[in-house]
TrEMBL record:
InterPro entries: Cys-rich_flank_reg_C, Leu-rich_rpt, Leu-rich_rpt_typical-subtyp, LRR_dom_sf, LRR_TM_domain-containing. Residues 1-19 form the signal peptide. PANTHER family: ANTIGEN BSP, PUTATIVE-RELATED, INSULIN LIKE GROWTH FACTOR BINDING PROTEIN ACID LABILE SUBUNIT. This is Nyctalopin. It comes from Vicugna pacos. Residues 333-384 form the LRRCT domain. Residues 425-450 are annotated as: Disordered. The keyword Hydrolase does not apply. Keywords: Leucine-rich repeat, Repeat, Signal. Residues 428-443 have a biased composition (Polar residues).
Length: 477
């Protein structure tokens, strides 16, 4: 009996299905492609070269795609009355103006995509007045300078807002009071600060992206109304300091990204309330110091990114009284691998959840990974730092062979200077003679006898010896 009833229902349903399909196709605009879907009719008019909205759509239309056309203007009731329409996409057009009331007649619209209309720049406060059921709004890359205060107040059901790649300079005030908003994407919008009043009333907000802006300041208590926030992205901004209570009240936060800023230290007070935090990004900053106990409440942390900073030491006390058992990313830091990091080496060997900790100093271990460093022990069992290599920098000297040649030449010259002198008549026939004669001629004579000739010879020899020694020293240097 049950089988017969099911067959009867199927047979009765076939004509209505065919009728819906026929209706969807018969009213399809000429430049579009229409097909029946589970909840109505899908209309595809993307890349159709349209310069204006088609005059008529199938009444059963549940989704309309008008992406990548040349639409410039939306007039009053631009889409007529479509009681079943739930999704409308107008991305990558040339829209410059939307008449207030353009979306009247779309009472069930839940998703509206207006992204990549770079000439839009301004929206009237009543643009979305008729969209009481809208849940997703995409305004990305429209080069909007502002969002009117009441624009989003007309959207009580709004859950997700994508407004990245705009020209806001501040968090749009229109976000305040959106009690049902759960996701806000405001990245790359030139925002310069998060004020204490920017996010008031966003009690259900779970994800906020402010990455790649120009944020220099986060005011104290800026997120105090965002107790449901789970993911906060502030990476790639210009933050150099943070107030102690910057993240106070974010007890459900699971991801915090502060990478790519200009922070110089990590303060203990920042993460005091973040007991549920799982991912913490502090990479690509200028951090040189981590306060004692900075991570003490982060017992559930799965990954901590501290790579790309100026850290030379990381104290075990930073994790006290708990102990971090997640993944540590510490590469691209000038680590000093002395006894202050012995705990980290032992932890790496025990748990294997950190790698790439290259030592920059002391010189005896520079270039090694921390895991390769062996720490000595004193007689009373205390850790002994790796000994510095006793190397002194000096200018490179001449290679050994030329030095030996210089020494040989000096020895030869010295031997000739100290050799017995030939008689005066023979001296005129030697190579050394003219030099000695000239030297003797320049010196005062103390007589014409034997002793008078010996004195200039000794003085000349002394001068040559000093000259040879001077040349030798210069060559050795």
């Amino acid at each position: 009996m049950l089988v017969l009833l099911l067959l009867h229902a199927v047979v009765l349903g076939l004509p209505s299905a065919r009728a819906a399909e026929d209706a969807c196709a018969s009213a399809c605009p000429a430049a579009c492609a229409c097909s029946s879907v589970e909840r109505g009719c899908s209309v595809r008019c993307d890349r159709a070269g349209l310069l204006r909205v088609p005059a008529e759509f199938p009444c059963e239309a549940a989704s309309i795609d008008l992406d990548r056309n040349g639409l410039r203007f939306l007039g009053e009731r631009a889409f007529g009355t479509l009681p079943s329409l739930r999704r409308l996409s107008l991305r990558h057009n040339n829209l410059s103006f939307i008449t207030p009331g353009a979306f009247k007649g779309l009472p069930r619209l839940a998703e509206l995509r207006l992204a990549h209309n770079g000439d839009l720049r301004y929206l009237h406060a009543r643009t979305f007045a008729a969209l009481g059921r809208l849940r997703r709004l995409d305004l990305a890359a429209c080069r909007l300078f502002t969002v009117p205060e009441r624009l989003l107040a007309e959207l009580p059901a709004l859950r997700e807002l994508a407004a990245f790649d705009n020209l806001f300079r501040r968090v749009p005030g229109a976000l305040r009071g959106l009690a049902n908003l759960t996701h806000a994407h405001l990245e790359r919008s030139r925002i310069e600060a998060v004020a204490s009043s920017s996010l008031l009333g966003l009690r259900r907000l779970r994800s906020l992206s402010l990455q790649a802006n120009r944020v220099r300041a986060v005011h104290g208590g800026a997120f105090r109304d965002c107790g449901a926030l789970e993911h906060l992205l502030l990476n790639d901004n210009l933050l150099a300091v943070l107030p102690a209570d910057a993240f106070r009240g974010l007890r459900r936060l699971r991801t915090l990204n502060l990478g790519g800023n200009a922070l110089g230290l990590v303060a203990r007070a920042w993460f005091a309330d973040l007991a549920e935090l799982e991912l913490l990004y502090l990479d690509r900053n200028s951090i040189a110091f981590v306060e004692e106990g900075a991570f003490q409440n982060l017992s559930g942390l799965l990954a901590l990114h501290l790579n790309g900073n100026r850290l030379t030491v990381l104290a075990w006390a930073a994790f006290q009284p708990g102990f971090f058992l997640g993944r540590l990313f510490l590469f691209r830091n000038p680590w000093r691998c002395d006894c202050h990091l012995e705990w980290l080496r032992d932890w790496m060997e025990s748990f294997g959840r950190a790698a790439d900790v290259p030592c920059a100093s002391p010189g005896s271990v520079a270039g090694l990974d921390l895991r390769q460093v062996a720490f000595g022990r004193s007689s009373d069992g205390l850790c002994v730092d790796p000994e510095e290599l006793n190397l002194t920098a000096s200018s490179p000297g001449p290679p050994p062979e030329p030095v030996a040649t210089t020494v040989s030449r000096f020895s030869s010259l010295l031997s000739k200077l100290l050799a017995p002198r030939a008689p005066l008549g023979e001296a005129a026939n030697t190579t050394e003679g003219p030099g000695n004669a000239s030297l003797s001629d320049s010196l005062p004579s103390r007589g014409v006898g034997r002793s008078g000739r010996k004195t200039p010879f000794l003085l000349g020899s002394g001068l040559l010896l000093s000259l040879a020694q001077h040349v030798f020293v210069l060559q050795m240097d």
